[in-house]
């Protein structure tokens, strides 16, 4: 296995990356350094503990689509092929053949999950913008990122809302039908957390029914707050155990939009 690892500035100097806390960025670099020659590793929790990163740091990397998590607990660096070119005489194929078979490499060298019917998944990352794209709602096997959105709200606002709530899912689907993107949800959450989190009168409104309701577009276009600021609490799960079942990618979907180049 090659001992050297490289990083492209197209990723590490993008707004999406630099807006994350320094501790999250550091965890990303260490995960890259420990990955095999195809970008896979089976011990993300060990690396997290070694570098003193919190569960929130790991969850943020997943929510922002910098890593992909499999049911087996294996993770892969989404932009590995953008970062690294390994000469054939030094390359050692990954042992995680099953997980690798669940991926395709797009033209911009980004790993993307695929379904059994080879439909493109929805975890797309661009400069400063994690995209949902134009999702065709109302058809079979459509993936809607309820978990990513609600988990991100819980992460930023220190709340415990469920992504399975029918009311919450109805609100999210309505906003997606209006053409808003996954990044738009992150932006609204970031802006309102920055303004309301320390206000005893307003922090009660950091909830899906308020944030994702009919005032969503107004919140999105408000001045002030920081777009993708990652403000708010970054509290570590007291159990010290990273539970991938609550944050990992839930399944494939269809999109009309291609993975954009950095």
Automatic annotation (TrEMBL):
Phage conserved hypothetical protein C-terminal domain residues are 149-221
Q: Where is this region: Disordered?
A: 223-262
Record field: compositional bias (Low complexity):
228-240
Q: Which domain of life is it from?
A: Bacteria
Q: Which organism is it from?
A: Ruminiclostridium papyrosolvens C7
User: What Pfam families does this protein's entry cite?
Assistant: Phg_2220_C (PF09524)
Record-linked InterPro entries: Phg_2220_C (IPR011741)
Upper taxonomic lineage: Bacteria, Bacillati, Bacillota, Clostridia, Eubacteriales
Q: Please identify the protein, giving its name as recorded.
A: DNA replication protein
């Amino acid at each position: 296995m090659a001992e050297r690892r490289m990083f492209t500035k197209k990723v590490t100097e993008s707004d999406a990356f630099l807006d994350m806390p320094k501790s999250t960025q550091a965890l990303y670099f260490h995960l890259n350094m420990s990955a095999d020659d195809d970008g896979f590793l089976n011990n993300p929790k060990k690396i997290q503990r070694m570098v003193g990163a919190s569960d929130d740091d790991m969850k943020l990397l997943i929510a922002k689509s910098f890593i992909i998590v499999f049911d087996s607990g294996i993770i892969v660096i989404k932009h590995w092929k953008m970062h690294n070119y390994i000469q054939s005489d030094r390359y050692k194929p990954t042992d995680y053949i099953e997980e690798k078979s669940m991926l395709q490499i797009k033209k911009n060298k980004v790993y993307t999950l695929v379904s059994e019917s080879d439909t493109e998944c929805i975890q797309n990352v661009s400069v400063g913008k994690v995209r949902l794209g134009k999702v065709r709602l109302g058809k079979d096997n459509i993936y809607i990122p309820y978990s990513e959105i609600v988990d991100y709200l819980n992460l930023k606002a220190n709340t415990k809302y469920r992504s399975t709530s029918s009311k919450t899912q109805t609100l999210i689907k309505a906003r997606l039908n209006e053409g808003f993107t996954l990044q738009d949800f992150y932006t609204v959450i970031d802006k309102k957390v920055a303004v309301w989190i320390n206000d005893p009168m307003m922090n009660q409104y950091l909830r899906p029914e308020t944030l994702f309701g009919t005032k969503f577009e107004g919140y999105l276009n408000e001045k002030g707050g920081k777009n993708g600021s990652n403000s708010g609490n970054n509290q570590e799960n007291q159990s010290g155990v990273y539970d991938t079942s609550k944050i990992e990618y839930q399944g494939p979907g269809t999109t009309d939009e291609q993975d954009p180049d950095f």
